[in-house]
Design brief:
Its cofactor is thiamine diphosphate. It comes from Hymenobacter glacieicola. Pfam families: E1_dh, Transket_pyr, Transketolase_C. The chain is an alpha/beta fold. About 40% of the residues lie in helices and about 10% in strands. It has 26 helices and 22 strands. Strand 5 (about 220) and strand 6 (about 225) form a beta hairpin. It is globular.
Length: about 800
């Protein structure tokens, strides 16, 4: 793989390219094209599930690759195979290994077979999960399928260069940047520029003035839908003219247009675009027009169904490789015979890579199949169940292309048939199954979270300490002191968000910190939740420690897609190859109004597996979580209680050092009759209800789960139920939301159903958001009386004489 600049990195014009350089590009372009053609055939032969390819975009990507230097970054989409080949971060064999879903990092380093073909990424972490020297490598952030989804992350990758250049305290981190000289290259199809994320990212880059170079591959279509249905004026650069800067030193974009088949023009354009981007930190849009797509969108359909004969004829004539051939001949750089030889050799090179990749993928599975057949035959011989088992063995033996699921499925069904029987063959088959399930768990289920020394579970707990005379202060001051201490400790930490900077956020937890640490560390942003989060994702991938604020929990919906698709599964979809330890800070639960009191926890729980979800009941607990997370390398959301900033708390004397472990509930009140499980703002309501319940002789235990992801790793709640034998789960989410999640975790996962003497109950909010006003809150979300009544009803059913009906 490329780790340093080569001769191809330092020229400035097409005239400086040697014949060897030109023919190298021609060869690489044809190898990529043949890989696309062969890949489509592999899908139709059943050797791969799906194929999406980069044919028609070879020449623009070759030109872009020649402007891409060590330390630069890519955030692209699934047609950039030629570019990845050209920068030396993809081989043809790896390309086919990904097509076959080869679940081996050595064979398929981008995703270990977890993402479909065309999803590229370089491995940024060593075997211990630590960052490599990313300033000396050519870097690709891991691709995702949602169109436009690469754009928010691209903003962050480019923003990191700005911070590394302008903040002298960061110059020491030379493994991540050389004084911010790195360009973040983004690629997107013309139809996907219709996505809101694209426009939001373009606007953010223009405001921030960051080295972000976006290439739009314009082939006029989005699957079958032509540009007239996609883009105003059918021209993205035309409608973005207002972003064009008026001159050097002015804010805005530089916008270039170039034909996708014009090799010389593309080389010149990308050299100029990258230079202004790199040196001046000006964002650039390169609109690559008249791009073709020889095989259509993907293996799911044929473009002959929606393109006219004239369009198909035009695409054949303007194929970029055909045009490159014409140019090479016209300029006298090569003969017909030389180019014919290159094309023929490219086809053979691809054939060898494809054959080798298939053999390395399939042969181990075939060996496993043969082992299973041998074990099954032994089982037949020992058990005498020949007829029924024979029906399982024969299809597997004669399956010409088995997959691992076929093997495991067959073994499980075979063991089902000999249940209760004792034989050595049955034990051997059981041992094989146990080992196979463990190996496949590693292949297909591992690395949802970090496995490095900085993983959450490795952060040592440090208890909060309080001076005897520590005064009671507004709770927001605890957070302010926590952030202040962490900003002093680690110059990589920065915070961005709406109103975070000058006024110190709407609840004043950052008050005075911009003045103390500077605008690069505590920064206001526009109203753009998706790219606020994206800005953090990209910066965290480059070694920085962002805290990205979403002002209210209700507005997390603007960012939930990018959290769910990009940062949450990042470690998983790269099998430990990349990480982005982003912290999303927000506030929610109690206040007033439909859009300032939401608690959509189940939506979040179902969307962000791969992130942690902290739901502290007060600001001291929140500070402990921030201290833990800022020492870890895993991403998380922290939801602060919106109505807690003015309540009084004491500031720990070690406010920047104490840490809270995740997944550890805290018992707020001991009791014997019933356990109430809750979190966040509900803790105060439940504790108030607990006092009132004591007045009628009911002694409840109150447990604050503190984090929902992870959830009660030591089964504290199950231990409580073993003593109380009754449980109420309470929160502010909708019915069937997080209360149902907590019930499943406790009763199913922890198997605490065994300890219950009464039906478990859930107490949640209404199935709508609260209307404005205190009455709206009272009648829409659980209140003290609701908690009291729910507990009383459970106890009344158990002891009706002791607890007669109230109503």
């Amino acid at each position: 793989m490329a780790t340093a600049e080569t001769a191809a990195d330092v020229y400035t014009s097409v005239a400086s390219l040697s014949k060897e350089d030109l023919l190298h590009d021609y060869r690489l372009g044809w190898e990529s094209r043949q890989a696309s053609l062969a890949g489509r055939k592999e899908v139709f032969m059943g050797k791969a599930k799906f194929g999406i390819f980069g044919d028609g975009k070879e020449v623009p990507q070759l030109a872009m690759a020649r402007a891409f230097r060590a330390g630069d970054w890519r955030a692209g989409y699934y047609r950039d195979q030629t570019f990845m080949l050209a920068i030396g971060e993809l081989t043809l064999q790896q390309y086919f290994a990904q097509l076959y879903a080869h679940a081996d990092v050595a064979a398929e380093p981008s995703t270990a077979g977890r993402a479909m073909n065309g999803h590229f990424g370089t491995r940024h972490l060593d075997e211990d999960g630590n960052f490599k020297n990313l300033a000396q490598s050519k870097n690709s952030s891991a691709d995702i399928s949602p169109t436009g989804g690469q754009m928010p992350r691209l903003v962050g990758l480019a923003y990191a260069s700005k911070l590394y250049r302008q903040n002298p305290e960061l110059h020491q981190f030379s493994q991540f940047s050389v004084n911010g000289n790195e360009v973040a290259f983004g690629t997107i199809g013309n139809a996907s520029t219709s996505e809101g994320m694209f426009f939001e990212a373009i606007n953010a880059a223009g405001v921030l003035q960051i080295p972000m170079l976006v290439s739009v591959w314009d082939d006029h279509y989005g699957i079958s839908v032509p540009a007239e249905y996609q883009t105003t004026k059918q021209n993205i650069s035309e409608i973005l003219k207002g972003f064009q800067r008026e001159g050097e030193g002015q804010d805005g974009f530089e916008i270039f247009r170039v034909k996708g088949w014009d090799y010389a023009g593309l080389i010149d354009t990308y050299q100029r675009a990258a230079e202004v981007c790199r040196t001046q930190h000006v964002p650039v849009l390169v609109h690559v027009q008249e791009v073709t797509q020889p095989q259509g969108h993907s293996t799911s359909g044929s473009h002959e169904r929606y393109k006219s004969k004239d369009r198909l004829s035009w695409e054949e004539e303007h194929d970029c490789l055909r045009k490159l051939r014409e140019w090479l001949l016209q300029e006298g750089h090569a003969s017909e015979a030389e180019l014919d030889q290159i094309e023929n050799e490219a086809k053979e090179t691809v054939k060898v890579a494809r054959t080798t990749a298939w053999s390395e993928f399939f042969n181990p599975i075939k060996q496993e199949r043969d082992e299973v057949v041998q074990l099954l035959n032994k089982l037949v011989a020992e058990t005498g169940a020949e007829n029924s088992l024979h029906e399982l063995v024969e299809p597997l033996m004669h399956n010409s292309a088995p997959i691992r699921a076929d093997l495991v499925r067959t073994v499980r069904r075979a063991l089902r048939q000999v249940r209760g029987q004792r034989s050595a063959a049955r034990r051997d088959l059981q041992n094989w199954l146990e080992q196979a399930l463990a190996e496949n768990a590693d292949r297909y289920n591992s690395y949802l979270f970090s496995q490095s020394e900085e993983a959450i579970g490795n952060i040592v707990e440090v208890k909060a300490e309080f001076a005897p005379n520590a005064p009671q202060v507004d709770a927001r001051e605890v957070l302010q002191a926590c952030f202040d201490a962490n900003f002093q400790r680690d110059p990589r930490i920065f915070a961005i968000g709406e109103d975070v900077g000058r006024i110190g956020d709407v609840n004043q937890a950052f008050a005075g910190l911009q003045e103390k640490f500077g605008e690069l560390r505590v920064t206001d942003t526009g109203i753009r939740e998706c790219t606020i989060v994206g800005q953090g994702i990209g910066a965290a991938m480059r070694g920085l420690r962002p805290i990205t604020e979403i002002q209210y929990l209700d507005y997390l919906l603007y960012a939930i897609q990018i959290l769910s698709d990009d940062v949450a599964p990042l470690q998983y979809r790269t099998k430990g190859g990349q990480k982005s330890p982003l912290i999303v800070r927000t506030r929610g639960h109690r206040l007033e109004g439909i859009w300032h009191s939401g608690s959509p926890i189940q939506m979040i729980l179902g969307s962000i597996r791969g992130m942690h979800l902290c739901v502290p009941r007060n600001m001291t607990q929140a500070a402990g979580f921030y201290n833990t997370l800022l020492r870890s390398d895993e991403p998380a959301i922290v939801i602060e209680c919106l109505n807690g900033y003015r309540l009084k708390e004491r500031i720990p004397s070690n406010v920047g050092e104490f840490t809270l472990p995740l997944g550890q509930p805290e018992t707020l009140k001991k009791g014997n009759d019933l356990t109430i499980v809750t979190y966040g703002s509900m803790c105060r309501i439940v504790l108030d209800a607990a006092k009132q319940l004591e007045e009628v002789g009911i002694n409840v235990e109150v447990i604050d789960v503190q984090t929902l992801l992870p959830f009660d790793v030591d089964h504290v709640i199950a231990d409580s139920l073993q003593r109380t034998n009754r449980v109420l789960f309470a929160d502010e989410d909708v019915p069937g939301g997080a209360t149902a999640y907590m019930m499943q975790q406790v009763l199913d996962e922890q198997q605490a159903y065994r300890f219950l003497d009464s039906q478990p109950r859930c107490l949640s909010a209404q199935a709508h958001r609260p209307p404005y006003g205190s009455d709206g809150d009272y009648f829409s979300k659980p209140n003290v009386e609701d908690v009291f009544d729910a507990v009383y009803e459970i106890m009344q059913e158990a002891e009706p004489k002791r607890f007669p009906a109230i109503y």
